[in-house]
Each structure stands twice: as C-alpha cells, then as structure tokens.
Amino acid sequence: MTASTIDSIKESVSVYYGQTIKKTEDFSYNACCVADYDKSLLEKITPEVLEKRYGCGSPLPVLLEGKTVLDLGSGAGIDCFIASQLVGEKGHVIGIDMTDEQLEIANRNIAPHMKNFGYGKPNIEFKKGFIEEIPVPDSSVDVVISNCVINLSPTKDQVFAEIYRILKPGGEFYISDIVADRRVPQRLQDDEELWGECLTGAAYVDDLRRITEKAGFFDIRTVSSRFTDLVEGIRFYSRNIRGFKIELEDRCEDYGQVVIYNGTIWGHDSKFELDQNHLFHAGVPERVCKNTADMLSQSRYADHFQVSAPMSHLGLFDCSADTPASSGAPTTINLPESSGCC
Question: Which domains are seen in the chain, by residue range?
C-alpha cells in the first residue's frame, strides 16, 4: 500500500467521523453501533458524549484501579470517561484520536465529567495523533484499549507494533474490533462507506493473528464474539480480544501446572473468565497450559491467582472447550491450532 493511499484512507476516515457521522443512529450497518456497556458506568456520562458512542463492544477489563490506560481512537471520549471512573483519581487515562471535531467534544467534556465523578483534578487527557504513531513513551502504559477502530487503519502491523512498544512488561491490550472470516477483496476495500462503517477494513482473522505475532503478541485470546454483518458472502464478527506483553509460546504447551482463583477480583467473587475457553471458579484447582499460567502470574492478575511452578514438559495442552465459558455466545470463527487458546 502506497503512502498516498494510506494518507487518503486516513483523510477519508477523519472526514467520515468528523463530518458525516454525527450520532450513533447515523450508521447504516451494525458493526460500529452496538456497545455492551455496564449501565451503571453510563449514569455520570454527559448526554453529548453518550450521543456519540461509536463502538462494537466494551473494551474495559477488570483491575484498572490506579493504572494508566490508553484508548486508541478515543473519539468523543466515552470509553475514556468510563475508564476514568475505573482507574480512580490516582489513575490516568489517555485518549488518542486524529479527528479535530471529536477531540473538541472530548476536551470540553473533561471538566463536566470530573465534576460528576467528584475528582479534584483531571485524571484524563486527550492527544491528537495517529494510532500508528502513538505519542507516548515506551513501556509507559498498563492497559491499551480500543473500540472498533483498528479495523479502520490501513497499516495494522504498525498499530500493534506501537501497542507493544508502549505497554509495560506484563501489560495488556483489551480490544473490541471487527474481524472477517476471509480476506476482503480490494474493490470492497475501496468503498469508502463500507470502510468507514468498520467493515471492509477489517482483517481476516488469521491475518490478524499473524500481525499480532509479528508485533510480539502470542496466544491472543478471544473473550467474546458475535456476528454483525454479511457483505457479499463475507461474514463480519465483533470480537473482544486480549493479549499480553509477556514472552509466551506460539502453542499451548503442558508443564503440569495448576491454578486456583482466589475469588478476590471485585464483582467476580465466584468466578472469573479469562477468555471463552478459560472460566475459573473460586477455590477450584484448574489444569492450564504454561501460557495461561504465565498470563495469570506475570500480569496485574497475579495477586488473585495461585499458580504452581512448571514441572516437566508433557507435550501440547488442549486448551479447547466443548462449551465456551460465555454461555449463550453465538458461533465464533474457529481458528487453526497454531493460534493457541483463541
């Protein structure tokens, strides 16, 4: 893809979200207008920001208190203002967006939200920038979130390389985005409306795996998945995915390890779901692969799990599950064995 093509796509997206789309109801397709937010976290959000809630999920994991959270493509700021509540007054939230109109809305809503949250000073800032060139230092962020934005980037490899760069060791990305069950032909990618609607810029799910692995993220986990749209036989899905800046293997290897969830994560006292295939019940020992053990012991989740040390190598570990932990979830895209626990 040439530099001029990349610039043209960025300009088209900026115009689409700065001028064409004014509110959630302006979208023609389903991909970017269904976000499953916790209603209690919306009570203190201003009407202007609520009206511009563009997204395909709710990319807000647990245990954010006191953390630094960065939102890629923050728009009018709804996910940032929700995260502001979750990180608390001592945490910090950074929103990155390239669209002046969206940034203007986000910035003028900082003061009203700080008042609504009862904070003495802002714990949030918005910066103009591209998600392919994130304007923050290396290893400075605990959690990167993004809601239906990375599909809009023509250079997704640069986005994930940047996410890896800015995350602290053990940090996590937790992203809601659109994926496709096959590669989208160029003629559909050239349709500015379909691209702007978060569809034809979506990565084929296995290409996304390859992109994240090249950036340094192995064994990306799918937390949830739902069908959104069908365009010329291509099925598009909204997925919540998570990945860790941890040295993981590209397959699920068995080292005879066991983990026990302590039941100490607020709001998840009886069980905690890491992904569709890993649901941990408090106090119940569970056999896991080494990647899962490392995710739970080398991240901010470490204090909430007891993880046994690795023993001898026993070969591959079967991380698949007959029934996904998310009961009632729609059929997901099946990934090949090389994708690990996804």
Answer: 3-244 (3.40.50.150), 257-325 (3.40.5.100)
